[in-house]
Design a protein that fits this description.
Strand content of chain B: under 5%
Order of helices and strands of chain A: HEHEHEHHEHHHHHHHHEHEEHHEHEHH
CATH architecture of the largest domain in chain A: 3-Layer(aba) Sandwich
Oligomer: heterodimer
CATH topology of chain B: MetI-like fold
Largest interface: A-B, 36 and 31 residues
CATH superfamily of the largest domain in chain A: Periplasmic binding protein-like II
Strand content of chain A: 5-15%
Helix content of chain B: over 70%
Structural class of chain A: alpha/beta
Radius of gyration of chain B: 23 Å
Number of domains of chain A: 2
Number of domains of chain B: 1
CATH architecture of chain B: Orthogonal Bundle
Shape of chain B: globular
CATH class of chain B: Mainly Alpha
Chain lengths: 423, 288
């Protein structure tokens, strides 16, 4: 009996020792795992001048999370989607991947490559204007919108002041200003249309301050066939570009040989044109420019009728998605949360960018008028990017070049309708 | 040699060829019958992509422009290359220097060349328009890459500038190989310089002609880099070419199925034209 008892005690001791030992292994293992250095792979296309800012956020993230090393890879812009598609298919995509509005992410979601982010704390703070990009047409969140860019009107305050012109607030005032500038021997507006984008922007900003102003659901009307391009609203905004050309506000033929981005914006930055309808990211270049010594502003394009307020265009310029097969899923989520908490740092480091979160407090001085339109909810998502037709922008740009060549609004609206409704 | 020994020697090269050329080609062709977007599943859509080519204004313009571009480049590059080869052939003192100088542009990257020429052509202080002004030819000034009537020609000029030296080098090799006795006997028969060139030298340059025409034809039919870098196919569809249309369909619009159908059309196009011209030129060679 005694020997049975002592054997029982021995068993208990062994069991206790094993339990304590196992617990110690788990705890030590856990501590080790916590301290273990993990590498978080992030790929991005470096939206205009943003890579330096991304690196600043990454450095701060690594400082706060010393066990996570962020390995940011900048992938060539024009082949970005193809390269990332290949990596997703090969199972070699990074943990966190940058995407554009919805074009990149929608096929990735359809193919099951994206991780759901609905339970993340920043999701509830997403502004209404970015719900399309965040939810990708589903009821679950998949994208964190890093930055919105805006398209609007840059004006050279120096040139306007010298000509005694007030900043135009509506279309009649804008035309009056350009007419006066032309008479004063100044170049009213810089437009580059070598690929057509620069000519499309006055039309896009124009339609937003007319058709979208009176009907915020205009996208839906177009998509379900209630509205079409062969209509007074589109004809009006297309005709405006023709009228500008005929009035000599810009040289349509010459604009076809001028680069849409650096070259056209460069004319404005060098102080050679009073207006530029372009992207807010030019604030970066204007800040860095050594030639720019003039005061300028960025506002929604005043394409609206007199007595009304203009509307801004915004679009998600860069987002983050998390790979469904991320090797570091927790670190990926932590990374996105850090971005959400520190988005104002990023906005300060770049220029002409707008947050997707209601929690952002940063307000930029140079683009205050544009920011005010966003605060007052006078903004629409870039129409062409909101139609779920990835190739349509390319087509529209070519039609704009055609319009600058032959001034034929009629053939352009008909071609746009045909292409838009192509199955 | 027994067949299996021969096969053993062939196997490594054949295996690589099948893996990296034949299989991707056949796979690409099979994608042309699907709606493949580059990721996810591909659905079979029959001949839809091919039917679309017929109604797609961009694709139709691309086919037309590719043909026009190829005709301009093949004719101009070969005439210029031949003229330069004859000139170098008769100028032994400057021959080596001229050959290197003319050959240099073809060694430059297309990106560098496009960058240089976009500044030469620029309507904002571009060199070409400035030079025309200096010589009192301001009436000829154009927005070279933005005017649909001259944009394709402007791109062709860049290509011709790049590769004429290469063509001239091939013609020169053949030209220097022509026996001096033949030239002398033609001269003794009373032929002047033009007659000697057209009736004696040019026919004897048939092998170089076949090579140069074939190379320029194939490279100009599958042109992509210069239109992509200089105009992106614009203005409108004025400089749209098949190579660019394939790239835009597959990599910009993510319509791989449609891009593959365009690629099949281009492949058939190149094979057809290359076989046709090669058989004509080879026949000319065999008459020597």
């Amino acid at each position: 009996m005694k020997s049975h008892q002592s054997s029982r005690v021995f068993e208990m001791k062994v069991f206790s020792a094993l339990t304590i030992g196992a617990a110690a292994v788990v705890v030590i293992g856990g501590v080790q795992a916590q301290n273990e250095q993990v590498t978080l792979r992030v790929a991005g296309f470096g939206a205009a001048g943003s890579v330096a800012a991304i690196k600043i956020i990454d450095a701060q993230f690594m400082q706060k999370n010393p066990n996570i090393k962020v390995d940011f890879e900048e992938v060539a812009g024009f082949q970005y989607q193809s390269i990332l598609n290949t990596r997703f298919v090969a199972g070699d995509a990074p943990d966190v991947v940058m995407s554009n509005g919805v074009d990149f992410a929608k096929p990735w979601l359809k193919a099951g490559y994206l991780s759901e982010l609905t339970d993340q704390p920043w999701v509830k703070n997403v502004i209404n204007g970015n719900r399309t990009e965040t939810y990708l047409g589903t009821n679950k969140a998949y994208q964190f919108v890093i930055e919105n860019a805006g398209v609007g009107l840059f004006y050279n305050k120096q040139i306007l002041d010298d000509a005694g012109i007030a900043i135009p607030q509506n279309y009649p005032q804008f035309i009056a200003a350009m007419t006066k500038l032309k008479s004063a021997g100044k170049t009213p507006i810089s437009i580059g249309a070598k690929i057509g984008w620069g000519a499309l922007m006055p039309v896009a900003t124009g339609i937003v301050s007319t058709a979208y102003r009176t009907n915020p659901n205009y996208d839906q009307r177009l998509l379900n066939g209630q509205a079409k391009f062969d209509s007074p609203e589109w004809r009006t905004v297309l005709q405006r570009v023709v009228d500008w050309s005929k009035a000599g506000f810009f040289d349509a033929k010459m604009s076809l040989g001028i680069g849409d981005f650096e070259q056209a914006a460069g004319e404005f930055i060098a102080g050679r044109a009073a207006f530029l309808v372009h992207g807010s990211w030019n604030v970066d270049a204007l800040r860095d420019s050594k030639t720019n010594k003039f005061a300028y502003g960025f506002m929604p394009f005043p394409g609206n009728p007199a007595g009304t307020k203009s509307r801004a265009i915004i679009f998600a310029n860069a987002n983050f998605v998390v790979n469904a097969k991320a090797k570091q899923p927790e670190a990926s989520r932590k990374y996105l949360n850090f971005w959400a908490d520190n988005i104002d740092t990023y906005l300060k480091e770049t220029g002409g960018r707008y947050s997707s979160l209601t929690t952002s407090k940063y307000r930029e001085v140079e683009t205050a008028e544009f920011g005010r339109a966003l605060s007052e909810n006078r903004a629409s998502v870039y129409p062409v990017g909101n139609w779920d037709r990835p190739s349509f922008q390319e087509f529209f740009m070519k039609q704009m070049q055609q319009l600058l060549t032959d001034n034929n609004v009629d053939s352009v609206v008909k071609a746009l309708d045909t292409e838009f409704n192509r199955k | 040699m027994r067949w299996y020994v021969a096969l053993g020697f062939l196997a490594p090269a054949l295996g690589l060829y099948i893996l990296f050329v034949l299989y991707p080609t056949l796979r690409g062709m099979s994608y042309s019958f699907t709606d493949f977007s580059g990721v996810g599943e591909a659905q079979y859509v029959g001949l839809t992509n091919y039917q679309r080519i017929l109604t797609d204004t961009q694709a139709v313009a691309a086919i037309r422009n590719t043909l026009v571009y190829a005709i301009i480049v093949v004719i101009a590059q070969n005439i210029l290359g031949l003229a330069l080869a004859v000139w170098m052939g008769n100028m032994p003192r400057v021959r080596n220097f001229a050959r290197v100088a003319l050959f240099t542009p073809s060694m430059l990257s297309a990106v560098v060349v496009a960058f240089i020429w976009s500044y030469l052509y620029s309507p904002l202080g571009g060199v070409l328009n400035a030079v025309l002004d200096v010589f009192g030819l301001g009436i000829l000034k154009r927005v070279w890459l933005g005017d649909s009537s001259v944009a394709l020609l402007a791109i062709a000029v860049v290509s011709i500038w790049m590769f004429t030296g290469q063509t001239a080098a091939i013609y020169l090799t053949n030209y220097l190989g022509i026996s001096q006795e033949i030239r002398e006997s033609a001269t003794l028969e009373g032929a002047n310089a033009w007659q000697r060139f057209f009736y004696v030298e040019f026919p004897l340059l048939a092998p170089a002609t076949t090579i140069c025409v074939t190379l320029t034809l194939i490279s100009s039919l599958r042109v992509f880099d210069l239109p992509f870098l200089l105009t992106k196919g614009g203005p409108g569809n004025a400089t749209e070419v098949l190579g660019l249309a394939i790239f835009q369909a597959a990599f910009t619009n993510q319509q791989f199925g449609y891009g593959a159908a365009l690629a099949v059309v281009l492949t058939l196009f190149v094979i057809m034209v290359a076989v046709l011209q090669s058989s004509v030129l080879r026949k000319r060679e065999s008459n020597l």
